[in-house]
Amino acid sequence: MLIDKETKYDRQLRLWASTGQSKLENSHICLINATATGCEIIKNLVLPGIGAFTIIDDKKVTISDLSGNFFLTDSDIGKDLATAAKENLNEMNYEVKGYDIIKSIDSILNSEEDDDVSLWDTFNVVIVSDYCCQLDKLKQLLWNKKIPLLIVNTIGFYGSLNLISHETTVIETHQSNKLYDLRIDKPWHELAQLVENTDLDSFNDIDHAHVPSIVIHIKALNAWKRDHDNKPPKTRDERLDFKKHYITTLSRNINLEGNFIEALDSFHRALRPTEIPYSLQELFNNNQIFDENLNLSTPIFWIYIKALKNFVDQNDGLLPLPGSLPDMESDTESFISLKSIYREKAIQDQTLFYEEVIKMLRSLGRYDDEISKDSITTFCKNAQSLHVSYGSDKLYDSSLLQELLSPSPDQTLVNVYFSILAFNTFITEFGKSPSATNIEDFTKIFKNSFGIKEDALSSSLKETIQELLAHSSRSYHNLSSLMGGIASQEVLKLTTAQYIPLDNVFVFDGIHSSSNKWKINS
What is the pTM of this model? Predict the structure, then answer.
């Protein structure tokens, strides 16, 4: 039975809408190492309909691979691991294209063949699951190409995730604390005219009890400003006075009129100044939008930022109006009338912004089809809450290392992270994973890797190392499933360009059921 996409992907469409789903379906994800964790990540991307995935692995399936990898079967033993995993994962969603490359990452990175050199440009995100012999080289290559790299490690009951991305920009952040832009303190002509034409004294009791709270707020604020030298309430006493003598007195019975009760409860909306958020002011000062730095390869996000700055400069320091309203006590006719005024203003602003973006693109010799009306609408609705973060190609920095060297009661997760890094260094030097019998060599590598003196290992760090080596398996499926879920969520954020991704290290301790994240600076 055929199922249409809206039904098949109903739940996720509610999260990121058709724009996010379209980006997801046009994305190609690369997985290096078909481990249990790696397959869990791909599974979580195949199910919502990622466009394509490629698995790079030159190993064969062995009996030990079956212990924690649910996407391998007895019949796969002896087959190419990448091929077996690809075929089994593809069965979950035949609309997704799966590919395999039966080569070691070492041979690909060292190859001079053109197809291998350009291979990475086909991927939107690259994932390394567990140990990678040429991680530093791969990391630098992808960093230079500005392709996000996720490094996921699961060892025993411990897990870590690194998101290495040159720059991450998000328009649709879906922030739960997002505030409505209502322009109560700066109503435009049509809104001001509606408020002026709303004669409360002439209304009967029913109509009076259905005047939208926004209208009440504007009337109250206008009255306050007339009495206070055109200045809004600032102090606590002034705010209380504003509520009592400028909102409450407009009501005929404050205990019965729900719209006025709502106006009192949401009075902070009337006192919130319409201004450019500080985070957006910082973007306006970013050197990427300086005229001399704009060119054919400037990401469209920064073209939007430049156009937005121009829009603000030409429109009295105001952003495009989003046009959305909160629910409020009102009759249908009054609410629709108010909503129409906000919607029409939003469309006017979107048109002006669109024209500014087109002008910018043409001045750079670029084409109009780089953008769409839908993308303009989305940007204008989210202009107040844009997100930009800058990553690092390092796995740790001096501040995180200092946490390791400064023992504290809550240091366990830092110990876990550095122990995982040392675990992979051990594999590079000895060609095998360490176990409990290698604690002396492991400790030596740990100290040498991070410049730790002989007597500087804390008791908690020693305990973490012992625990790591006692359970050094990469195939504990509960951890693989957990870390696979966390990592796939970050991939979805990157591919849909929605929600704010990790910035930029996450560590999980399954023994104590705790986790934390850190920002590694360049």
Answer: 0.89
